[in-house]
Amino acid sequence: MKIIIALITAVFLAGCQKEDILENPDTNSTTNPMVNSMTTQTNFNTAGQILLLQGNFENAVHATSGIVKIYEDKDKKRTLVFENFKTDAGPDLRIYLAEDRSVTNFIQITDKVQNGNLSLAIPTNADLKKQNHVLIWCRQFSVLFGFAALK
């Protein structure tokens, strides 16, 4: 029985094995398809922004590192900013804001994940008092790559 469980676990995790992930050397390039779909920028201007929350990424099933911060501007628009972010690639990776690492009450930020420095708009319906975890989630296999608890 233990062998069967081990085999099922191995097959399940094999779906989210290490692949190449797009680095983010120039997110202002119009030739980068990840940029156009994510509306990202490399150097987020913090002038006039208020830092609301921040956290460090921790590993889950895959190595994940970097810092994530949430800023708010004078118009109450919030931005999720990744600094020195790095994770393994996988199929169907998403970035979620959730209440916990178990994907409780989550909201999807994007369906594209890339390494480097980037910023993403946070939807207005996100409740940062509750949804205070940033998850790198493989939707296809329900695998948590890494996470950051925001404080």
Automatic annotation (TrEMBL):
Superkingdom field: Bacteria
Q: Where is the DM13 domain?
A: 48-151
User: What Pfam families does the annotation carry?
Assistant: DM13
Kindly give the InterPro entries that the UniProt entry links to this protein.
DM13_domain
Please state what the protein is called: Electron transfer DM13
Question: What organism is the protein native to?
Answer: Emticicia oligotrophica (strain DSM 17448 / CIP 109782 / MTCC 6937 / GPTSA100-15)
